[in-house]
Amino acid sequence: MRHYSLGVWIVVAIAVLSSVGVAVRGGHKAEGLTMWTFARPHAAMYRPIVDAWNENHDPGVDLQLLSLAAVEHRMLAGFYAGVETADLIEVERSIAGRAFTGPLEAVGFTDLTDRMREEGLIDRINPPSFGPWTSRGHIFGIPHDVHPVLLGYRTDLIEAAGIDVTLIETWDDFKRVMRPLIVDADGDGDVDRYPLAYWPTDLDKDELLILQAGGALFDADGRATIDTATNAAILAELVSWCVGPDRIACEAPDFTQSGNDLKRQGYAACYFFPDWMCDVWNKELPELSGKLRLMPLPAWEPGGLRTSVWGGTMLAIPKTAKDFDACWEFAKHLYLSDELARTLYRVGDIITPITEHWDDPVFDEPDPYFGGQAKGRLYIQMAPHIPARSSSPYNRRAIERVSDAGMRLLEYAKSGEVYDPGALQPKALELLHDAQAEVERQMARTAVFREGDSSKTSQDNPGGDG
Amino acid sequence: MRERPGPAPYILLAPFLLIFAVFIVYPLIRSLGLATERSFGPGTSDFVGIKNFRLLLIDPLFWKAARNTLVFTLGSVFIQLPLALLLALALNRPTLRGRSFYRLIFFSPQLVGLVFSGMIASLMFEKRTGLINKTLHGIFGFSLDYPWLQVHIMPMLIITALWMYVGFNMVYFLAALQNVDRSLTEAAMIDGASKAQRFFHVTLPAIRPVGAFVVLLSIIGSVQLFELPFIIFSQTPYGGAGPDNGALTLVMYLYREAFETGDLGYASALGWIIAVFLFLAGLGQLVITRGEKA
Known about the structure:
The complex is a heterodimer of chains A (about 475) and B (about 290). Chain A has about 475 residues and is an alpha/beta fold. Chain A folds into two domains: about 35-145 and about 310-380, D-Maltodextrin-Binding Protein, domain 2; about 150-310 and about 385-445, D-Maltodextrin-Binding Protein, domain 2. Chain A has helices at about 5-25, 40-55, 70-80, 95, 115-120, 120-125, 155-160, 170-175, 205-210, 230-240, 255-265, 275-285, 325-335, 340-350, 375-380, 395-415, 420-445, and strands at about 35, 60-65, 90, 135, 140, 140-145, 150-155, 195, 250, 270-275, 290-295, 315. In chain A, helix 9 packs across helix 16 (about 395-415), helix 10 (about 230-240) crosses helix 16 and helix 16 runs antiparallel to helix 17 (about 420-445). Chain B has one domain (about 55-295): Orthogonal Bundle (MetI-like fold). In chain B, helix 3 (about 60-90) crosses helix 12 (about 250-260), helix 4 (about 100-110) crosses helix 8 (about 155-180) and helix 10 runs antiparallel to helix 13 (about 265-295). Classes of the chains: A alpha/beta (about 475), B mainly alpha (about 290).
């Protein structure tokens, strides 16, 4: 027999042993149910409820905190390649649409529509909150929140300028009443304060303002409706806020250190505040405690909508879940409980979508960060009126293109010194037409909804997915 | 007579070959298959032949990504590499004091890493709070609101890449310069050649193989550009590709189509176009260096 060196035998031994080890160990299978969430505050809020559930249920629920990117990639890997996912997944709106591509039978989440109807859940949940989780009339998750938007304003700056915010009903009122805030305090030629934090590059704000104004990027059947006269008028108006002698808006981004510095300095006096943003400011800008108040958004016309919507999360059960009934019972226990409704508000400033909990006194508690204002009640007053949203997988792409159109329109306005919204409108329509063409090209390529797809129309949809 | 090696080499190569086959060869073949499919969400697709390639050629975003990638590649090859060579020439002078210190200084951005450098660049070029605008405002009264990250995206990326990679490429050139036969330079000097003549007729031909290798590396790295713009713009409200897709590169477009849109077929077709381009660039380098040897 041929003689091999010791090194060869060591390599062979390691290869054989590790192969046997991997084969024997196999994949790790959790005994109970697993649930993924992407938000640390959510995990902290759910932990006591999960622990209490696990005391009476065997096997219980293993709550796992993952980053949003990890949830997205592992969830989609499960849907595309069949690898194991959790039995319950909290899905944020920005990634939910990805799961709704293709024919209904290819959606990786369990269709909950019939269960919800049979058990009366649809009537217990704020109808517009179903929108982002509903595709072609089918509901694929329990809504976690409502996320109505209010306008937060710096009382110290507003009072110093002698402004009475009760005079504001519409955005036109806002522009007129807030004008004294625009100042160049140090006389260096640069304006140091504007009334509003908004810029066309901020996609979330673009979307919430378009929705508030009655615009839409997709119709009820999922077709792109970007280049409408309504959207063009909205875009022209938004751009007119950012340029020219009547400029009222500036860029003070959220979630960044530099943006927070600008907020501390009072570069903008008013900010868009979905309910969850209260918690963000509380944690990131504690030094502004007591200097902020909330009011309904100015409407686009007298008597118009005074709120909008920003963000959202659902709890979904993948089709691969081990025990659907156990998942469903736990999901209802977690999301529908009055305990969670109170915790959501106390810990995260989030309003529950379960309407029967809206009378809870927790929402009347004064919040010292907002000068003792009972902001919960104000958010609840707005909750039923939030605009319907699309669950289209192309929603994000569409709003990106609208934002690009906004930036190009801004350059057009600057270079041509065209500041009047009416005069900007034809160019806005032209730019939105390009945006529409690009989104349609992408939709045609991937055919989100294949011909012959056995789907209902969105008329059956309680929240409206278009 | 040579002794046959027996199965030992194959046993030793087997783990690598297995991993190579599973993680490189199979995905390559599979992606070629995917490139001929049209996706309909998870698990559903149709065969469309070369349609994805045809659609790519008429896709304005593909051409925008290609243009951005080309601009960055040209910036890398024609700005970054000459600068790296100049630095290497300066630091190769035996009379220069503190050479090791300067080498460390110029190489140090590599030690910090791309993510950190990208984040710093993002902060430096911010409106109002960024170091660049604040400095220019303080000295020249320049507008604090000047939007570098919106209107000068590619120059800003090239500048950041210079900061990152000039020192890195300098090390290659430095190593090549230190291997240039000093007797040739001295002979040229004795023959009365000027500094420029010595550089162009002695030094440059001697370091050309390394230069060709660095150019190839630079082209490959530039065509694969993804992390830098992704990091810089993920800190901003408009996300990875920047405003109006000003920072969209070919690989970023591939990532977006595959992992954000879920269009695996289209992304695979794009991946193959990039792969073919890089293969041709490598082949070109091989032909050039072989030609020189012959």
